């Protein structure tokens, strides 16, 4: 039975009440308690720094060569916080409500409210650390608006907000390393968790198995290492790379979370994937990753396709009346600023119907011509230029657009070789974020005692669709302000637990299992590269478990993935050796887990025959093709328990909405 | 942009591990699309090497969008290749034409030992940050974010310095393997902000000391670092660092 451990009482007092009553660990005992943290992105670095400051003995692991490289670094847009500095009516409640609604009523109210409550403290903390947020001329912080909200609550540092926040957390982490509170292990990858049951006075095992450590592989030497911890925190990010092509970093993977899942941690809502509408389209088979163009571009750019199918004319040759501004046509109220899931599906619908552009026909135009003219006219007015020529207007307009979006336009030009000031950009949706993740309770603990999941690695706060600028908020909320309290509630009962010997049979067995699997992978010596198998998995997932899903496709995908799994384990070729740096082996370990995850995602998508947020089931749509939720049957979190190969059991956590009453989202 | 394909000769540094001597290997690659990124060209070559039963080339990379700072190739004598304000992962093959020869090496610096092929160990940068590249404020200690207004110009300058991605191109480009641009960017970021004031002097002294300990060379201000920096970090930060160091050295009394 799932126990989400949501505190009793009114929604807005739950967290205050929890903090007032949770157990505490005194400083002398904190020094004896060891905490392992996997991943050093916003969630991991902030947790490692904060727990180190509290006096716990922390070990922080990352697979990159430095904690500062975790993929949080690539977040562009901003971080939300209910500061109401703009006096525009924002409040904790409104941030809570927007997040619940944006998530299409598939998130837990208590968690989301807590997130909104701590959001303001995050900004304070970051500014104190020296994060250089954008400021106004008066010296105060600047805000901008983002999708799905009507207030300006997004704090930002140009288009590099994630980078600046991560560097803030990284510096706090390095300070703890220098102080000796945190030990840092770079180029190390977690390959299993170790579960051990407590023993009574007579040495008999009692209670449920608890997470007591990890097995990691040193990626430079290939050696396996055992590490003990009284608790283990997985802050290992999302699993978008199951699709092969995504905006995630090449190394982003599900392995840590998946190992935990196989050892008993339930996986929550695996099928909830965010497909971001404005990415640079695929250019060919060689493509290794996709690049996101910030959502902020939709403030000024207009999205269109030709009205004629298979129109091969150049965009500038297509006259205004032969263009279809389909978002403005379909969604009058929100136009080009509809939420991400809606914008993505609309682009796919047009391309599937034969209106796509570019050589692949899998793209739509994002056009700044109108914005350039609009801004140009305003500038000419300011400068007192009467009857400016089209050329003069354009010149001034380009300057304004450059000022606002210059770095994004440059990025586009570097990748495509096209000048977006001259021709409209071509964009297409791409996998960007995964709302699903390890199931956690209110304290961020998984179904395995002592094993926690923070940030994108857990399922908890974004429901079926995440709003822009909320991922950074959640990662830092979990690490700076939630886990320092909730972990104490668990560790207070562990103060008598001595460090368990690394020769304990559980450690020996876990290491052996990891070692056996590596040996097995290396001994296959087949004919297909890891990359080629990963690409095939991605293709199955994208076509059948991507932006639109249906029963037939999902059933086919499950069979195809099972087949692919067999092929992988009988025909993969991994060059090199075990006891050395071997990036192909690292990849193989990750892709093997992605294959298993892919199957579960399809199973989850098949089970959830409603449409909600980023999960669109073709069977569940209204007459206009809009997503139709089914609260009567699906107002629950799907928490999957691993039972064996290709075998899972579904547990349901019912969602109760006491404050934010579910309504059908409409953006028309 | 007209799309074309090309055949290239690659001379790539191969080194089995840190104790191996290492040498250049030559590879012919064909049918490379001008639309590929430089690292995708390496992906294609590696796929071929795997098929041929050879070991692929190890290289560092992660975000592939120019922000994580992991990629680190020294291409035809220039860190990150020929484009301005660019990382290796953002370099695209239309920078080259059919028949070109491209020489690819790892970063070369005593403080960045080679781990394998094109992969180097940049932990020295983390060590420099540990020496003082932070503001000592524990979680929960902060006052309201708007309690202390900061001049926009200063905040912008701090941001420009904080944009450093820690890739190490500055070190690789420098004939002395100096880390002054990296270090000065961090010192500037924190010295320009009022929050950094309390530790301003001790920070710069400790960080410079650590930089020397790591084995980076001295700065002779050739500005090669700025020329190759993917984030266009300015050498004026080095001037600021020198000033900070001088003032701290003359007035710091904590020893």
Automatic annotation (TrEMBL), chain A:
Cellular component GO terms held in the UniProt record: plasma membrane
GO process annotations (BP): anaerobic respiration
Keyword Thylakoid appears in the UniProt entry: no
UniProt cofactor(s): FAD
Domain FAD-dependent oxidoreductase 2 FAD-binding, residue spans: 35-472
Active site positions: 340
Species for this entry: Niastella vici
Keyword set, alphabetical order: Cell membrane, Electron transport, FAD, Flavoprotein, Membrane, Oxidoreductase, Transport
E.C. number: 1.3.5.1
Protein name: succinate dehydrogenase
Gene3D superfamilies referenced in this protein's UniProt entry, alphabetically: FAD/NAD(P)-binding domain, Fumarate reductase/succinate dehydrogenase flavoprotein-like, C-terminal domain, Succinate dehydrogenase/fumarate reductase flavoprotein, catalytic domain
Location of the protein in the cell: Cell membrane
Residue ranges of domain Fumarate reductase/succinate dehydrogenase flavoprotein-like C-terminal in the record: 534-667
Principal subcellular localisation of the protein: membrane
GO molecular function: electron transfer activity; flavin adenine dinucleotide binding; succinate dehydrogenase (quinone) activity
Lineage: superkingdom: Bacteria
Protein family: Belongs to the FAD-dependent oxidoreductase 2 family. FRD/SDH subfamily.
InterPro entries associated with the record: FAD-dep_OxRdtase_2_FAD-bd, FAD/NAD-bd_sf, Fum_R/Succ_DH_flav-like_C_sf, Fum_Rdtase/Succ_DH_flav-like_C, SdhA/FrdA/AprA, Succ_DH/Fum_Rdt_flav_su, Succ_DH/fumarate_Rdtase_cat_sf
Regions crossing the membrane: none
NCBIfam families listed in its UniProt record: PRK07573.1, sdhA_Bsu
EC class: oxidoreductase
Topology relative to the membrane: Peripheral membrane protein
Swiss-Prot/TrEMBL catalytic activity: a quinone + succinate = fumarate + a quinol
From TrEMBL, chain B:
Keywords: 2Fe-2S, 4Fe-4S, Iron, Iron-sulfur, Metal-binding, Oxidoreductase
SUPFAM superfamilies tied to this protein: 2Fe-2S ferredoxin-like, alpha-helical ferredoxin
Cofactor: [3Fe-4S] cluster; [2Fe-2S] cluster; [4Fe-4S] cluster
Name of this protein: Fumarate reductase
UniProt superkingdom: Bacteria
Chain ranges of the 4Fe-4S ferredoxin-type domain: 155-185
Listed Gene3D superfamilies: 3.10.20.30, Alpha-helical ferredoxin
Stated family: Belongs to the succinate dehydrogenase/fumarate reductase iron-sulfur protein family.
Biological process annotations from GO: respiratory electron transport chain; tricarboxylic acid cycle
Species this chain originates from: Niastella vici
Residues spanning the signal sequence: none
One Pfam family of this chain: Fer4_7
Keyword Metal-binding: yes
Annotated GO MF terms: 2 iron, 2 sulfur cluster binding; 4 iron, 4 sulfur cluster binding; electron transfer activity; metal ion binding; oxidoreductase activity
């Amino acid at each position: 039975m799932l126990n989400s451990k949501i505190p009793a009482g009114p929604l807005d007092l739950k967290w205050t009440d929890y903090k007032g009553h949770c157990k505490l660990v005194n400083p002398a005992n904190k020094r004896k308690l060891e905490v392992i943290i996997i991943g050093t992105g916003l969630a991991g670095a902030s947790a490692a720094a904060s727990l180190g400051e509290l006096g716990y003995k922390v070990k922080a692991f990352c697979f990159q060569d430095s904690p500062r490289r975790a993929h949080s670094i690539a977040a562009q847009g901003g971080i939300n916080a209910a500061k109401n500095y703009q006096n525009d009516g924002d409040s904790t409640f409104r941030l809570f409500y927007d997040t619940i609604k944006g998530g299409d009523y598939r998130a837990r109210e208590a968690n989301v409210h807590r997130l909104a409550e701590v959001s303001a403290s995050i900004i304070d903390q970051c500014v104190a650390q020296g994060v250089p947020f954008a400021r106004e001329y008066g010296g105060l912080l600047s805000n901008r608006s983002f999708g799905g909200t009507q207030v300006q609550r997004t704090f930002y540092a140009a288009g590099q907000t994630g980078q600046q926040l991560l560097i803030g957390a990284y510096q706090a982490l390095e300070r703890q390393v220098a102080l000796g509170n945190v030990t840092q292990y770079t180029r190390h990858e977690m390959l299993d968790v170790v579960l051990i049951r407590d023993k009574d006075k007579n040495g008999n095992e009692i209670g449920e198995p608890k997470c007591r450590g990890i097995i990691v592989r040193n990626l430079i030497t290939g050696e396996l290492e055992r590490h003990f911890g009284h608790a283990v925190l997985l802050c290992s990010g999302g699993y978008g790379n199951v699709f092969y092509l995504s905006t995630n970093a090449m190394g982003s993977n599900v392995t840590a979370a998946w190992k935990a899942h196989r050892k008993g941690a339930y996986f929550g809502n695996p099928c909830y994937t965010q497909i971001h509408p404005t990415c640079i389209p695929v250019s060919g088979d060689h493509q290794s990753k996709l690049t996101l163009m910030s959502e902020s571009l939709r403030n000024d750019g207009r999205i269109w396709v030709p009205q004629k199918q298979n129109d091969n004319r150049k965009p500038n040759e297509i006259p205004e009346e032969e263009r279809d501004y389909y978002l403005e046509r379909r969604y009058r109220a929100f136009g080009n600023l509809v939420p991400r899931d809606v914008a993505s599906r609309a682009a796919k619908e047009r391309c599937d119907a034969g209106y796509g552009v570019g050589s692949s026909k899998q793209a739509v135009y994002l056009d700044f011509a109108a914005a350039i003219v609009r801004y140009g006219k305003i500038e000419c007015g300011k400068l007192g230029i009467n009857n400016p020529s089209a050329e003069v207007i354009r010149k001034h307009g380009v300057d304004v657009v450059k000022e606002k979006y210059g770095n994004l336009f440059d990025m586009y030009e570097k990748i495509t070789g096209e000048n977006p000031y001259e021709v409209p950009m071509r964009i297409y949706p791409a996998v960007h974020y995964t709302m699903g993740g390890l199931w956690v309770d209110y304290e961020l603990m998984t179904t395995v005692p002592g094993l926690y999941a923070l940030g994108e690695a857990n399922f908890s706060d974004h429901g079926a669709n995440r709003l822009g600028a909320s991922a950074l908020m959640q990662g830092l909320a979990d690490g700076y302000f939630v886990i320092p309290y909730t972990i104490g509630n668990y560790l207070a009962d562990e103060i008598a637990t001595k460090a368990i010997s690394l020769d304990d049979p559980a450690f020996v067995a876990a290491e052996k299992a990891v070692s056996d699997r590596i040996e097995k992978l290396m001994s296959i010596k087949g004919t297909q590269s890891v990359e080629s198998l990963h690409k095939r998995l991605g293709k199955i997932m994208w076509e059948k478990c991507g932006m639109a899903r249906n029963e037939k496709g999902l059933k086919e995908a499950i069979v195809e993935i099972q087949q692919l799994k067999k092929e992988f384990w009988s025909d993969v070729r991994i060059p090199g050796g075990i006891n050395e740096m071997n990036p192909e082996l690292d990849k193989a370990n990750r892709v093997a887990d992605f294959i298993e995850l892919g199957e579960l995602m399809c199973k989850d998508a098949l089970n959830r025959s409603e449409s909600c947020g980023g999960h669109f089931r073709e069977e569940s749509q209204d007459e206009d093709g809009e997503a139709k939720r089914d609260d009567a049957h699906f107002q629950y979190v799907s928490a999957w328990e691993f039972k064996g190969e290709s075998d899972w059991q579904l547990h349901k956590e019912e969602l109760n909405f006491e404050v934010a009453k579910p309504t059908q989202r409409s953006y028309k | 942009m007209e799309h074309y394909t090309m055949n290239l000769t690659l001379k790539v540094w191969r080194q089995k591990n840190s104790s191996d001597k290492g040498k250049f290997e030559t590879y012919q690659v064909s049918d490379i699309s001008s639309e590929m990124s430089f690292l995708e060209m390496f992906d294609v070559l590696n796929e071929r090497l795997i098929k041929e039963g050879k070991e692929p080339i190890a290289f560092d990379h992660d975000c592939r969008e120019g922000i994580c700072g992991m990629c680190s190739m020294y291409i035809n004598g220039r860190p990150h290749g020929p484009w301005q304000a660019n990382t290796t992962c953002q370099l695209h093959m239309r920078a080259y034409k059919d028949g070109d020869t491209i020489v690819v090496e790892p970063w070369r610096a005593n403080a960045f030992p080679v781990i394998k092929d094109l992969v180097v160990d940049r932990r020295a940068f983390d060590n420099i940050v540990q020496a003082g590249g932070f503001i000592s404020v524990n979680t929960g200690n902060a006052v309201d974010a708007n309690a202390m207004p900061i001049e926009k110009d200063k905040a912008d300058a701090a941001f420009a310095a904080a944009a450093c991605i820690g890739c190490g191109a500055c070190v690789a480009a420098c004939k002395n393997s100096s880390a002054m641009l990296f270090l000065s960017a961090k010192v500037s970021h924190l010295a320009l902000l009022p929050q950094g004031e309390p530790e301003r002097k001790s920070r710069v002294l400790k960080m410079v000391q650590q930089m020397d300990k790591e084995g980076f060379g001295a700065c002779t201000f050739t500005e090669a670092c700025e020329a190759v920096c993917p984030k266009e970090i300015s050498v004026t930060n080095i001037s600021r660092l020198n000033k900070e160091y001088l003032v701290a050295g003359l007035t710091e009394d904590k020893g």
